[in-house]
Amino acid sequence: MIHKASSSIRRMAALALLLLLARAVFTSQTAAQEGSPPQLTVLAPAVHIRSGPATHYPPFDTLAQGTTVGIIGYNAETGWWQVVSRFGSPGWVSGNAALVAVNEAAVAAYSSPAVPQAVAPAFQPPPAVGIIVFQTASGGPIYAINQDGSNLRYLTTGLDPALSPDGQWVAFTRWDNPQIGALGSLWLINVDGSGERRVMEGVHQPKSPTWSPDGTQVILTMTYGEHLNTVSKCSGERPPRGATDVTVKVEGKDDVVYCYTLLPDPYWGLRRVNVASGQFEDLNYDTHSISPTWDPANPARLVYDGEWGLVSLDLSQGKSLPLTTDVQDRSPVFSPDGSKIAVTYRQDDHWEIHVLNAWCASPAAECAGGRVRLTASSYLTWVQQELNGQMPRSYHNASPAWSPDGSQIAFLTDRTGRWEIWVMDAVCASPGAGCGSNQRPLFPAGTLAGVPLQYHGVDERVLSWR
Fold this sequence. Notes:
By secondary structure, the chain is mainly β. Helix content is 11%, strand content 42%. The protein folds into three domains: 31 residues; 86 residues, Roll (SH3 type barrels); 301 residues, Neuraminidase (6 Propeller). The N terminus is likely disordered.
């Protein structure tokens, strides 16, 4: 009875909040109508909202015939109007009179020389022409698609596809079976689906290949040993990642003892492979050296996900240093200029995307304060879930991939109820300012119809963009 009453109170509070917001919106709209705000109405059966004021920018939303939206800007050079999409992000609509009609307030507001005309915002630079490869699931089909959503094509099957620096080849791995310690191999295939060949075989559970800046080598992670039995342990050291049933007790005055259980867990190492000859060498690594990413601006530097956070490895000297001390930093990916690293971050019970500086003053400094969280669920999301009778939860955002010019980040999200590929702006004026804005689907609706995506949080790299 108490539970039902509590649930009823929460629902009433949520409903009250939505009514309050609706009243605020209605009041705002009424005031706007009295002032005749600039508006645009769609005349054509449908028009695209694009990320920039021209047709070469990719579309990310559509307005149906008869839809009226407010205008927030105008580009005099191309004659396009800036509006707000249903995702809450700004976008651009053609000003062609056969497609849309604008009211007198819009003409007055944006034709007067005294009023500055809006231009494309700095955080929406023209997208570079590029190709994206993605897997539907670990070991499942791998596809390639043009950045604008055209030419979707099946390539092969495998794990963690990675495009070469010139965008011509895809490196990926395969396992003989899904069991711990299974043998696997490294493969290459052309982006048009031709020329598939095996580079190396007989390696245990290879995954996460990353290319050298010159495209001649690949470094991947692999299992080199494992403990197959459950282990219970008590010590003064902090529990490693993957520990369960953790308890903390104080012995004596200052001695802290951690007790925990380790489930069966493979150990992961690093191997560098020449893609032409298949020759390889095993690198200096930690017990868990996962998800390597090669610095595109420094061929001697590799960053990987280590035991206690991200680790920087000097390939010329074989020496490693801690980069971060947060065990929740997973699957690092360098930006094209090597200045930033995007990670899939374990945020309590879900995944989010963070970006941090590629160099840190010290591990404790967390990259000199350069960490920025790009994704988050809003409070209104939880309210709507509660009203729909659902358990409130934060949606997942994971597996980031940088655009070729570093201005955008593609990622996976389940915010619509299924896994989809979205994109957001990565350019930041300063930490927390303008970062992660303009989040929207990367491809037009229906582009990946019949191609379901999966993400299981096992350090898989679903996307690669060149």
